[in-house]
Amino acid sequence: MITMSDVFENVMELAKRRGFIWPTSECYGAVAGFIDYGPLGAMMKRRIENIWRDFYVIREGYYEIECPTIAQEAVFIASGHVAGFADKMCQCPHCREFLRADHVAEGGGVKNASTMKNEELALALAGCKCLACEEVLGKVEVFGFNLMFKTSIGPDSQRVGYLRPETAQGMFVDFSRLLRFYRDKLPFGAVQIGKSYRNEISPRQGMIRLREFTQAEAEIFVHPDEKNKHPRFHRYADYRMPLLTFGQQQKCEEAVSLSMREAVDKGVIANEYLAYYVALTHEMLVSIGIKPERLRFRQHLPDERAHYATDCWDAEILSDRFGWVETVGLADRTNYDLNAHAKESGTPMTVFIQYAEPKKVPRRRIIPNMGVLGKQYRNKAKAIFEALGNSTPTADGADVVIDGEKIHIPADLFEVRDEVVDIRGEDIVPHVIEPSYGIDRMCYAVLEQAYDEDEADGEKRTVMRFSPKVAPVQVAVFPLMTRDGLDTIADEITRKLHKAGILAEYDDSGAIGRRYRRQDEIGTPFAVTVDYDTKENNTVTLRDRDSMKQVRIAIDKLPETLAALVEGTKTFGELG
RNA sequence: GCGCCGAUAGUGUAGUGGUUAUCACUAGGCGUUGCCAACGCCUAAACCCGGGUUCGAGUCCCGGUCGGCGCACCA
Length: 576
What we know:
Layout: H1 6-17, E1 21-23, E2 35-37, H2 39-59, E3 63-64, E4 70-72, H3 73-79, H4 81-84, E5 86-91, E6 98-100, H5 101-107, H6 118-125, E7 142-146, E8 150-153, E9 159-163, H7 168-173, H8 175-181, E10 188-197, E11 212-222, E12 240-244, H9 246-250, E13 256-259, H10 260-265, H11 272-287, E14 295-299, E15 312-319, E16 323-334, H12 336-345, E17 351-368, H13 370-377, H14 381-389, E18 397-402, E19 405-410, E20 414-428, E21 431-438, H15 439-450, E22 451-456, E23 459-464, E24 475-479, H16 486-499, E25 504-506, H17 512-521, E26 526-530, H18 532-537, E27 539-544, E28 550-554, H19 558-567
Parallel strand pairs: 3-10, 12-14, 24-25, 24-26
Antiparallel strand pairs: 1-2, 4-9, 5-6, 5-7, 8-9, 10-11, 11-21, 12-13, 14-15, 15-16, 16-21, 17-20, 18-19, 22-23, 26-27, 27-28
The protein binds one RNA strand of 75 nucleotides through helix 1, strand 5, strand 6, strand 23 and helix 17.
């Protein structure tokens, strides 16, 4: 039996040994917070990313885009990351501990510490005690520590750039192009799978907290009044899962199981859109092999939310080692980001929503006779033109104030035109629903949950019970003996499977049992063995990793059978 | 960043300042082998990095890196 604490060590040892995960640039000494995916790990990660694409790109119809991982400073000034992603830090002169300056100050009774400037805060800190060694700090320097990696663009180093701390901003800054691509209609979405970077102070926990990590994010732009009208909500209306609201967390209660319909109706989840992607996330995670009993959805506590989000739910996966690990964040980012970029860039980020019926709106226009007014007032004429438009004329004319001077414009120098105009629609700023997946954490969870040990013929067998969909190698092909032409036949079968797009690995080294075990350890779900009967009747044995059972199958049927098994449209048990 | 602990072949390990650094598994080659880590022979493979103490350092000391745990940090 494997004990709980062993799993992490066993699985990481296996992952290192068999080429899933390596410390980065080991020959120079690894760097904390960075990992290399080895041959099998990179393949598995691709498969997980592609399942994600199946859900979001193919099924939801949200196309993938690809933006640079470096963006100019303005992008992150607008997003709030330059200001908001930085912590004010100070170092204790006695014990050299780095401390959050605002926390220390507030602990010492200083009010409004979080809004103070660095110099101000440094003065306020002089009388406060260090949280670590409890000495009075005295003279300290307060500095900002920003979690973004800073760099410069171009040879003159004038232009500041940052490595993106999330992929999301790329979708926001491309909003106008995306809106046009989707032919000016809501809802629409864009997704991105790529690297993001955060210069964590002290990254640990292996693949769980990285300085460079892969995110898969979707930004779904919706009309703010239609967040409860997801067009495909019926798909998940009856989908049930455990939900842990912030109310329950405060009362230390267990998660309750609700359908998405109930969750929205009871106000547990803010709206249909959020609930839809909560359910989709559940389905997606289960499909890559996460056990439902190790999956829960937890609502963020109000003080835990990011600077932009209103309602926010995390998909958390239970790890033997790390407890509940936040793996997917589902946030309603409202119109925060689009407003911020519109303001910073000066580009409107709105959608024109046409009314079903044009609204009849009375409008008064005041049209001055500029031929006369221009000559009469010369350089004041322009100001008068504008002031007149906003004035309320009476029967004998209008009074306007220009540079403090009151000027009377007689009624015959302008025309008042009252008309009724059609307002056909309005410009609105869409709200954004954002599911954001931590791919590396998903990979870790898949590895940890796949790890298993059982007994075969009295010997310990280590087996990675990957879903066939994510297993790096899909099928192994063995000749029973490396003679009598069995190896040639096995080699032909391998090539035939490659042609069908199946990743098959040929192996003729060592005893047959050893070869099965090697494949079990890297989680290859199926193995084909060519034996002497193959020469008689063109059949081979097909072995199932988990049950170790075998069935005979015609060589001709192999490609389609394996494709179905890998896809999950057929199970091994159904082969008879 | 702080404190405590650790780092030896691919993996897991032994090693109380003094031989050619132990053992097992793994891997590669040859032979053998008729379906679940069989066997024989052969081969490859390691003291984290940099200083210091010493006639002599894998071993002791200092610094660094990485990893684990606790604290702090974790939009």
